[in-house]
Task: structure prediction
Amino acid sequence: MPLSLGELGGAALLLALAFSAWGLVGGAIGAIRRDPRLLTSARMAAFATFLAMTAAIAIMEVALLTDDFSVSYVADTSRVGSPLWVKVVTLWAALEGSLLLWGWLLSGYWALLASVAPNTPLRPWALTTMAGVQLFFVLVPALIAPPFLIVEPVPLDGPGPNPLLQNHWMMAVHPVLMYLGFVGLTVPFSYAMAALITKRPGSEWMASTRRWTLLGWGFLTAANVTGGWWSYEVLGWGGYWAWDPVENVAIMPWLTATAFVHSVQVQERRRMLKAWNLLLIVLTFSLTLLGTFLIRSGVVSSVHAFGDGPVGPYFLAFFVLVMFLSLSLLALRWDQVRDRADLDHPVSREGAFLGTNLLFLALTFAVLLGTLFPLIVEAVSGARVTVGAPFFDQATLPLWMGVLALMGIGPLLPWRRAPDQTLFRNLAWMTGAAVATAAVAAAVGMRGVYPLLTVALAAWNLASLALLLTGALAARLRARRQSVVQAVRRYAHENKRRFGSMIVHFGVVMMAVAIMASSAYRVDEQIRIDLGGSTEWYGYTLTAADRFMDATEARVRAGAVIDVHRDGRRVTTLTPTINVFAGQSMSVPTPDVLYRPLYDIYLNVAANIGPDQEFVVLRAVRSPLVTWIWVAGVVMAIGTVYALTPSAGAARETRTSKTEERAQA
Amino acid sequence: MSVRTAPHPVRSPFARIAAALLIAVGLASGSVAAQPTAGPGAQIELESTVFDVGRQLRCPTCVSESVAGSNSAIATEMRSEIRELLQEGRTEREILALYRERYGDWILLEPPREGIHLWVWALPAIALAAGVGGLALLMVRWTRASRAAEREEPLDPDARRRVREALEESA
Result:
C-alpha cells in the first residue's frame, strides 16, 4: 500500500523536528567549543528544516486541493465544493494549519539568515536562538496540534472553513502578513540574545538586524491595516477597529516594535539605552507569544473566532520560558548593559525618542490591561466585567495625541542638544500652522477636543516635515546650482533611511486624520426601503430595485439590489448580501461599499430578505475619509520599502547626513 | 488553566426568546418590519443616537461585539428597544441605567468609574505618571553627570567639540 499524504506530512514534520533540534544542540555546542565544523553543520540544519517544512506545506496543499479527507486537517476544515482559492488559503483558516504556516515562514527566515548573515561572533548564537524558537514551532504542529492525523473511515466531505474567512480574498493576505511580521521580529530577538550570551551588547547586534527589524515592523503595520480593511469589508458594521481581543494582541507587538525601531537609533548614535533596547525586543517577541496564547486558548473571547485548540498552555509555557531565560540573561549581563550617564540635554533627539518610548509603552500597558482586566477580575472576585471600545478610546487617545506631538518635534531636534534659536523658530512655524488649522476647522463647524487636536497636530506634523525638507535642501540649493525637483530627488536618493521615515510619518498623519474623521463624524442608520421606492441618504438617492436569493453548492445567499443615484445620474448599483455557507449555520454578511474620497456609502443587509417581502431593511453607514486609512497604509508601506532599499553609496550617505547635521546645529 | 468562557447566561425572557430566534432564523425581522419608513432630518438624528447608545452596550449573546456593531437578532431587537425608549423621551443616560439594572455592570462596554472597575481606569494613569516621573529622574541624573563633566572640563570647548566629533566619526 502506498503511503498516505497524512503519513508523508507527519514524516516531514518529524524530520523538521530532528533538524531544528540539531540546529539548537549542535549550534550551542559548536558555539561553546568554537568548532567551525559543528557550526557549519548546525547552519545546514536551517536549510534542511526549511526543506522539510516546505515539504510539509506542499503535502498539505496537495491534500487540500485533491480533497484528501483522510488527512484530519482537511477533514476538519475543507469542503469539496469550495472554490480553488479558498482551498489554497484553507491552509491557514484554522489553528493547526496556521501554526504550520507560522513554522514554515520561520524556517524560511532562519534559512535566509543562515545564508546571508555575515560571519560575525554573533552569528552562531543568533542562529542557535532561531533554532530554539523554530524547535517550538515544529513541536507544536508535530505533536501538540497535529494537522496530519489519519482519519478512519475517510469522510466523503468536510464542513469547510470558517465562513468569515472564506468571504473575502483579503484572508489570503492578512494572516500571512501578520506571521511574516511576527517571524521577522524573531531575527532581532535572536541577535539580541546572541549579544547577551557573547557579552557584546554594543550596537553590533542592531546594525546586523536593522533591515530585519524594519521589515518585521513593516509587515506588522501592513497586517494591522489589512486586518482593519478585512473587518470593514466583511463584518458588516462599517468599522475597521473594535478593540477586540484579537486586534489588541495584534497591536501590542506593533506598539513595542515601533518603540524599538525608534530607540535603536539612540543606541546607534549615542551608545545609550543598551539594556532598554534589549528589554524592548524581548518584550516584543514575548508579546507575540502571549497574544497567541490568549486568543488560541479561549481565555479571551473574540469576534475573530479562529477556533481554539490544545496549544494555549504550551504557548503560555513557552512565553514564560522565553521571558525567564532572556530576563535572567539580561540580569546576568547587567554590568555590561548598564548605561553610563551621558545625556546632554532633555531637549534633544534622544530626549524626544525617550518620550516616544514612554508613550508607546504606556499604550501597550493600557491595551494589555484592558484586555486582561476581565480575566483578572473574574479570577480574583468571580465578578464578570466588560472592558470595551469606549475604555480603549479614552485611555489611549491622550497618548496617541502625545505620540503625534512628539513625532513632529523629534526629527527636527539635533542629537545632544538643540540650539535655542533654531528650536524656537521651528516651534513658532509649527505652532502657527497648528493654531491656524484648528481655528479654520473650528470656524467651519468642527467641535470636540480630540477632532480639533488631531487636525492641529496634523498641521503641526506637516509643518515639521516641510521644515525638515527645506532645512535639508536649503544648503544643497545654495551650494550647487540645481532645480528644486533635482535637489529633492538627490536628497531622497542619498538619504533613503531618513526620507523613507518622512514618507512613513506622512502616512501616519494621513491615517490619524482619517481615523479621527471616520470615527468622530460617523453616521449609522437603519433604513427601510420599499421595493421600487427610494430614500435620500447624504446627497445620494438609494432605490431598492430588486432583491434576490440564490443557492449554489457552496452557499445560499440573499441580497438587495440598490441603485445609487446622485443628482439624477446613476452612480452605481450596490448589492449588499447575506450568506450562509454550506456546512455552517452562521450567516455572514457581505456589505457593499461605494468607495469615495470624502465618504463611502456602506450598505449592509440588516434583516431577513424573504420572497414575499416587499421591502428591504438595510444598515447604512457614512464614515468620512475612511478610504484614506487604506491609502495611508499603502503610503506607510512605500516609506518602509524605501527606507529598506540599499543606498547607492552607503558610506557617502553617512558622511552627507553628518555634514548636514552639523550644518543644522 | 484555560477556562473557556461559557456563553453568557441570558436573563430576561425577552432576551431568551430573541436568542432562540437567532438560532432558528439567523436574523430577526419582526420588530424591524414594524418600524416606520425612515425619512431624512429628525429620523437620521434619532437613528444616530440609537447607534451611539448601542456602541456603549455589549451585545449579550455575541462573542465580543457591541449592540451597534452586531447584526444578530438580539442586537437588532435591542436597537429597536433603544429606539422606542428614545422616542418615549428617555435620555441616553437613563437607557444605559436601565440596561445596567437588567444585566449588571457587565453590559456596559465602558466600565463605570466605581468599585472594582476603578482599577482599570486608574492603573494606566498611575503607570504613565510613574513612567514620566522615572524618566524625569533619570534625565536629571544623566544630565547632572554631563553638566558636572562640563564644569570640570579642563579643555576649552572648541577642542572638546573636535575630540567628540572625531570620536563620533570613528564610531
